[in-house]
Amino acid sequence: MINLSFNSLHRTQGFTLAEVMAAVLVIAIGILGLAKMDAVSVSESGTSSTRALVANAVSSLGGAMKANEMYWQTTSVPTSITIAGGSGGLAVTTPAALTPGQIPKSQCLNAVCTPVQMAAADLSTFATSLKNLVPTASSTITCSQASGTTQPATCQISVSWTEHQVALNQSIHSAIQNSTTSTETFTQVVQP
Q: On the chain, which terminus has fewer CB atoms closer than 10 Å, C or N?
C-alpha cells in the first residue's frame, strides 16, 4: 500500500509581484540604454558618411585641377575662389573668367575647351556635387605661388558645413557646447 503525505501543499512556487516588477524595471532601463546607444550610432554613421562624401568630392576636384595644369599653373589663377552655400543652394563666386556661364553647352565633354573653360566646368561640377551632398556647405579654394620661382602653385581646398549631433547623456551634451550642431571643416592641399 502506498501512503502519500501532502504536508507541503502550501509551498510557495513562482515569483512575487514585487520581484516581477523589479525585473521589468531592470529590463526596461536596459532597453532604454540600448535605444539611446542605437540613436548615437545612427547619428555617428550619418556624420561619418557625410565626411567621407565631402572628402571624395574634394579629392575629385583636386584630381580635376591636376588634369588641367595648363590653367592652374598659370599666373592668372585667382588667389581665392568661393563656393557659397545658402537657401538657394551653392553658387560659384569667382572671377568672371571662371563663372559657370563660361562653360560650353557640351560641358567640355564633347567639345574642345580652353583651360579656363575646363576650370569653370570643374568648379561647376564640384559645386553641384557639394550642393547635392551637403546643401548648406561652403567652400574656399585658395591658390598661391611663390613669386619669382618656378615652383608649381599650391591650392588649398576647404569645405565647411554644419552637422547635427546626438549626445549619449546630458554631461556629454553639455561638453559638446550646449547645442546639437557643430561646424565641421575639411581641408586638402593640392599641387596641380
A: N
Which uninterrupted H or E stretch holds 129?
helix 115-133
- Nearest Cα to Cα of residue 68 among 145, 13, 122: 122
Whether 5 is covered by a domain: the verdict is no
CA distance 134 to 130: 6
Q: Is 189 helix (H, G, I), strand (E, B) or coil?
A: strand
- How far is residue 82's CA from residue 69's CA, in Å, rounded to a whole number? 20
Instruction: Determine contact, residues 79/143, Cβ cutoff 8 Å.
Output: yes
Per the structure, the complete domain to which residue 169 belongs is given by 17-190
Asked if residue 4 is part of any domain, the answer here is no
| Residue 77 belongs to a domain | yes
Predicted confidence (pLDDT) per residue in 29-52, tens digit:
999 888 878 777 776 777 788 889
Is residue 115 a contact partner of residue 97, using CB atoms and an 8 Å limit? Answer: no
Number of structural domains, the chain?
1
Which of 9-13, 24-28, 188-192 comes out lowest in average pLDDT? Answer: 9-13
The grid cell for 128 is 553641384
> Which grid coordinates belong to 145?
605661388
- Longest CA span, the chain: 119
